[in-house]
Amino acid sequence: MIDNERFCSSETILESIRQKKAFICDMDGVIYHGNRLLPGVEDFVRWLQKEDKQYLFLTNSSERSPMELQLKLQRLGLKVDAKNFYTSALATAGFLASQVPHGTAYVIGEAGLINALYEVGYTMNDINPDYVVVGESKTYNYETVIRAVNLVRNGARLIGTNPDLTGPLENGIVPATGALILPIARTAGVEPYFVGKPNPVIMRQALKRLHSTREDTAIIGDRMDTDIVSGIESEIDTVLVLSGVSDVNTSQKFAYRPLLVLDSVYTLAPARLKPQGA
Questions:
Q1: pTM, rounded to two decimals
Q2: What is the CA radius of gyration of the chain?
């Protein structure tokens, strides 16, 4: 039997979310799985654009630049401007530039992270850097770990682009930044500082990019431990979608709750903007 009071409440909340001026949206599990665009995403993005919403696709991954992410979605059939992407690499670069302007870093990571640091005036340094910065990396090895440990023990601060222990692949998972940084942190005897979700730092930077306030913004994600807690700690309304790692029971395992739970972002697009028969 339908709980009419709860149903009406959910419909009211859904409409209030639709009225937001800006949206911060996670990518993997919300927009795509690996190299497959999720059903209804095109309708959702068309709604954002038609209604002149401000939106930012925010990812904890530091591997790719906004341009690379734009090209990926273009290959999947979705046209989105590069300015609508924001990554933990950009957030990390922005944070470091605010702490030590024009500093130096020893980086374990991919081009997206290295380029982001260059763009804020940082230079690479494997002798006496201000920071050791770790992101997702395909060249991670024992030698880079030893080098990083020694630099941290000699005074460099240890930074992780995000605390995620694993990242998704179409056929499984891979170690992510939180796992890769652990041997360095434990061996050097320090605690790393993570800039990506759920750190409110990345959320404040995202709001600045959107030229929006937290009251006028909603965050959409598929993970309770990054996306939803990020919104709650930043006082931004939260939408959990069940198109990624979460199911209908996931939120019950946490001490906090999303404001709204939806099957996918497709539900956010009003019926009048959906294809006939959808």
A1: 0.89
A2: 19
